[in-house]
Design brief:
alpha+beta; about 325 residues; Beta-Lactamase; 5-stranded mixed sheet; 11 helices
Length: about 325
């Protein structure tokens, strides 16, 4: 019997040898791993384990009365891991041997106690289950990573579909969706069309690469001159649209337009040469319509824009404003 604990440690590492009073004379290495901060030697087994089925099993006599039967137990302190067990009298009737297993709680046990193959008998089917759990976890992680990459690719594709590649602003398609949502919600907003003055001269005298740099500069100015809740979009060659959400009133829209025109009129150096352009703008205000419609507002803002150009360029007008 002196070699018994060592043999049991190899054959069934999740076990306890109980003395006749029900105290733990020896705990297998895996059982000890379940309670690393507690010395189980000489602990009352019935204070460590609760027998949940059959019920009312307390004391060695009641435990041995169910020798050879399947017992359901759980640890009394957290984590309250559920176990299955079978008890047999020790040779010579000197106490008992309680062999344990995790049953269906093995996945939680592996997680809670960082168990490895070494914590199970070499012939234990739980080892095979661990392989399956590890394989499943690896497959799920690979699937999760793939889904993340696919989701990222989807977001990137959607972002690209709604972004003007030259300036990074929203494009016409994105603008349509934004205006549709604002109209459906009955939101208060201003729609401002902006067209660059004298931009063709930049392309004609300095080339399209210089023109692209000017467009990128204008895009930055539009973003810096507006709030994060506003939207700046490029809908054509040198045509831009601003959507100002809840701008406060007509006077505030006019101030935004003036600020933008002044910023765009500031000379900018392109390819070592000073470049001067200007901008004309026209705005439509949603609260001036009984039932705002995106297409109508765009058309009205466009007419106001060309009225600004006709009046001398470098200025802003509202839709419906008298000439």
């Amino acid at each position: 019997m002196e070699a018994c604990p060592h043999i049991l440690d190899v054959l069934c590492p999740l076990h306890a040898i109980l003395d006749p009073e029900g105290r733990i004379a020896h705990a297998g290495p895996t059982l000890s791993k379940l309670r690393p901060g507690r010395d189980l030697a000489d602990a009352d087994a019935f204070e460590v384990f609760e027998v949940t089925r059959p019920r009312h099993v307390r004391g060695m006599a009641a435990l041995l009365a169910h020798a050879g039967q399947c017992l359901h137990l759980r640890l009394r302190d957290a984590p309250r891991t559920k176990l299955k067990g079978v008890v047999v009298p020790a040779p010579g009737g000197d106490g008992a041997i309680l062999n344990l297993s995790f049953g269906i709680s093995i996945v939680e046990a592996v997680r809670d106690y960082a168990l490895t193959n070494a914590d199970f008998a070499a012939t234990d089917l739980a080892v095979e289950m661990l392989y399956l759990v590890e394989a499943k976890s690896a497959a799920m992680e690979a699937s999760r990573q793939l889904n993340l990459r696919l989701q990222g690719a989807k977001i990137a594709a959607e972002e690209q579909a709604f972004t003007d590649t030259l300036t990074g602003l929203k494009n016409r398609r994105a603008l349509g969706h934004i205006l549709e949502r604002l109209v459906v919600r009955g939101a208060r907003f201003a729609l401002m069309q902006i067209d660059l003055d004298w931009f063709k001269a930049v392309n004609d005298t300095m080339g399209h690469a210089a023109g692209d740099q000017v467009l990128q500069h204008v895009a930055r100015e539009l973003v810096e001159a507006t709030r994060g809740s506003d939207t700046a979009a490029r809908i054509g060659g040198d045509e831009f649209v601003l959507v100002l959400r809840d701008p406060g009133g007509q006077a505030e829209v006019a101030r935004v337009a003036t600020r933008i025109i002044r910023r765009i009129e500031t000379p900018v150096e392109v390819a070592g040469r000073e470049t001067r352009i200007s901008a004309s703008a026209g705005s439509a205000l949603s609260w001036r319509y009984t039932r705002p419609e995106a297409e109508r507002m765009l058309a009205d803002a466009d007419r106001a824009l060309y009225a600004s150009k006709a009046a001398g360029r470098g200025r802003h007008r509202f839709a419906g404003q008298d000439d």
